[in-house]
User: What shape does this take?
Amino acid sequence: MIALVDKSMEMKSQVLFNHYFSNINELLHEDLHQYTCIFINGLNNDKPMKLSYEILEKLWTFVEQGGILYGELINCDDFPSSRLFGFKQDFSVTNHRLEKLVISRDNSFCKKGQLLEWHGPFLTGFTFDTERLLNIGHFKETHCTEDEGKYPGIVVKNHGEGKAIFTTFSFLSNDQNWTLRPNWVWNQVIKWLQKEYHLPLKSKHLVIQPSKENNLKKTIEKGMNWFLTSGILPKEDGSLGIYENVHSIRSDISKDFRPDCHAHTALLFYLYGKYANEPKWIERSQNLLNYLFEAGYQDTDSDSATYGFWKWFQSPKEKPDQLFSDDNSWVALVLLYLYRKTGKKEYKERGLLTAYALLHTQNKNGLRPECIREKELLNHGTTYFKNSTMASMNPHFEAIVHSAFIQAYLVSKDDTFLQTAYQGTLTLLDNKRDLKFMYSKTAGYSRFLLSLAQVYAVTKDETILKGLHEIIDYLSKNQHELGGIEERDNPDPDRYGTEDTGVFRMNGEGIADQLYTNNFLLMNAWEAWKATGDPKVKEFYEKLVRFLSSIQITSPKREFDGGWMRSFHLESGEYFGNNGDTGWGAYVIESGWTNAIILSGLILKEIDQSLLD
Assistant: This one.
């Protein structure tokens, strides 16, 4: 017989039990020796339960005489409770993120040093006379560590014939089951607890499952439905803009607004409207851009130092400040592409304003800094940047500027745009040893492919073509058999816990990134195929298509269903990665940067068009 005490009822789906109690005091009237195991969920309304001395007496006797007691997040700041569970807490309950757990010893199901993730309530403290099964610490590694960990996670204390098992974090009571990652390791831990400690637990089921779909039409429809049902659009018609993402940790909608996310999504909505012959989606595309225009994201004051540039986000500051090259270029590229498709003059005017603002701050090598601050322009003027040799040397920023210049050239016929894009692309190719990468070389090269493809499509220059094939060759060597590109060559593995970092640390961790690599690469590889007609490039693209279609999320949670998270573990087939990026972690779902770009890359194939057509 198994008893469960759980007022919140969170444990009911995780434990095989016979008798349920909502109040711990009900045990006072029970013969506890009829049970082989008792589970107690101590957390209720974010407060750990305080056990009365009478309850502790009964539980102590139950354990000594052979019973198994499992307690989770129970208040253990007094002697009786702390001696029962072998854990003495230091502070009241707190909430944690970016902490991990490590398996403390080898067993039949897990290896010592394997890492797991959790998110939620936690009790800090110390142990005595116990065996530690899991420890908690601030580990930077992705899969395994040699560190022991700082705080106890799950501990076991023997009493007479029985055992008391105590958990200091929300494990069985976790109301966000998907935050216990990776699922495959947690299920091995559960098997360990079942076999060695006789806990009647159920396996955890994936809330986030890959669709394993290979029908592109279904993938596209499911992805478009995400935009309508996830809550990412404040208003369904797009007139109030679009939010940035589903947060990596909280798993709710981050209600930030960014012009680049709007541009990516406006591009998708237009392409889908044409693909499906549904004018409503084209109207949504227009509404997203109109929101940006009317809300004053672009500086249209001709006397301003930041004239033509866009705010990075919805900022109370009157003028743009952080002028990121890639974010501004994405808006310009989409506006000018959509002008070529729709003939809307405002798209042309605003797109060229941005393109010329970028051009006037581009140096003689065709490159630029990754970000210019408003104060720098006020102090130095545009001439300073034109005459400077400062450049990011990072394709993440540089390549999209060059791609925007190609659109500007097609619209304006101003040859300066084409020559600057051509020169800048050559400079990057000629100095590959000096290239800088933010997250990985795979991510940087995935971005570089777009400008190489489009500059080659216009110039037919053999040097550009050679560079394009070198990039494809490097990426192909890291293309997993599933079709996704495995992250490789992290420039700064120790940057864990800072704002921007990768979702892997070392080569060979088996992680695919859908925020910075495979997402943009899908569209960029398509553009490379259209530019070159090379069958190898097409095969490379087709493998990516199969991969991204197969890992689209199926979930009962509306924020997830139909989207793509950033980090996917290729060997286990599960969304998992190193969650050290504090802004855009392993489990973020971006409206523009991920979902919109992936779907655009699929639709361009379906309608057999290039962005240059």
